[in-house]
Design brief:
98 residues, 2 helices, mainly alpha
Length: 98
Amino acid sequence: MKTNRSCILTLGAVLAALSALPAAAKLPEPSAEAKAKAAEAAARTAWANKVADYKLCQSMDRVAARYRADRKSAGAEAKPATPTPACADPGPFVPPAQ
């Protein structure tokens, strides 16, 4: 019985390896249009990440301002330990030049 089990496991491993071979085949080079679309998609994603970072920065600034105002009204002053840079607006999306 033990021999049959190991034989089945070995056969399964061989079949799995053989089924992965077509996935290792080399794909053709993408066309210039496909490359341009991919570049624009990457640029749009990078811009969207910058916009999200900008909105997060604004949100954190509002929370910090509210915290400092609450501490000031309680009679204690809260100063930031380290100065933080201002939030940088990424502006509108500009597609990359081709």
